Amino acid sequence: MPRWLPRAMVLALALVAAFQLGSWAFHQLTGLLINILIAFFLALAVEPAVSRMSARGMRRGLATFLVFLGLTVAVAGFVTLLGSMLAGQIVKMIEGFPEYLDSLIHWINQTFHTHLKRVDIQEGLLHSDWLRKYVQNSAAGVLDVSTQVLGGLFQLLTVALFSFYFAADGPRLRRALCSVLPPARQAEVLRAWEIAVDKTGGYLYSRGLMALISGVAHYILLEVMGVPYAPVLGVWVGLVSQFLPTIGTYLAGALPMLIAFTVNPWYALWVLVFVVIYQQFENYMLQPKLTAKTVDIHPAVAFGSVIAGTALLGAVGALIAIPAVATLQAFLGAYVKRYAVTDDPRVHGHRSSRSRSGPGALARVRQRWASRPGGQSRS
After folding, report:
1. DSSP state, residue 335
2. What DSSP state is assigned to residue 285?
3. For residues 259 and 228, is the Cβ–Cβ distance under 8 A?
4. Which residues of the chain have pLDDT under 50?
5. Which residue blocks in the chain are alpha helix, DSSP H?
6. Is the dihedral of CA 157, 159, 161, 167 positive or negative?
7. What is the pTM of this model?
8. What integer pLDDT is reported at residue 55 of this predicted model?
9. What are the CA-CA distances from residue 115 to residues 118, 122, 188, 270 (Å)?
10. How many whole angstroms separate alpha carbon 109 and alpha carbon 102?
């Protein structure tokens, strides 16, 4: 046996073990890494406000605390107002459920010539196996729901703490990162950091503008139909549909439909139709143009980045895909050498004069038809 073979085998086994250990650690820490990524982009989003307050003489930690306090108060107030409104509407629906059921039974009896009664339907529902199984499953799932809620609160606290540290200690973090790099690389890192702040701010600006447009459009619809809490519902639709990717549109439209159903069941259908039509208008006309203008990327690139981000990281990837791609595109654009474009008609989508010099296909057919014997006599 060669003398180097045992060492090579030990080295190979050590490399395989290190790879397995690293892969296991990465999969175990995936949730934490995603939370840190969300916190980093959230810190980039609040960086302009914190820097502006810090430039006026306020300590950076206090400025960060005030910004996060304002965001927390706004979110808590909105959730409290929305929760009270939703609770009141649920109570109203429960109280008016017998009336809705009577009107539905009356319509079914007149349409299909049946003889249904509300008492029979209520007794059938109370003694049905479906209701008993549903209650048992709901009781068994209370613990799972409580665990998920606690886990979500812990993740939210983790993101808030990391984003606070990233925003408050931003200069120190940049200084520590630049201290291990040569001066040329330090300039590139600082430039990339500034680009990320600008692109993230532009993305949030575009989302906020689309949320405003969506909220105003849905508020007008709900106000015209006389649905209660129209301003709050408009704000709900705008914020949830824009800042909660993938499922935000469905959650945003479900609540106005529920409130409109308490006024008139047909109003819920009109709200559904309006939500679907507006969503198509936003996806194919408003969002690509507005996102491309504020984040400075092509609409097709923005759409593709959202799909790729969703495939990689789910809802988180869909939320941060556009600012991440915009940052990468702007950073790499400085290293791509560009040349002057030649003055060629084909650049503008026109065919060259050389290709148009000969007669067209229709003209050649006419020439051949005219050159046939007797072809000129008919003309």
Report:
1. G
2. I
3. yes
4. 355, 357, 377-379
5. 4-28, 30-55, 60-95, 97-112, 118-126, 129-140, 142-168, 170-178, 183-225, 230-243, 248-263, 265-281, 287-295, 299-313, 315-332, 361-370, 375-378
6. negative
7. 0.64
8. 85
9. 10, 15, 79, 30
10. 10
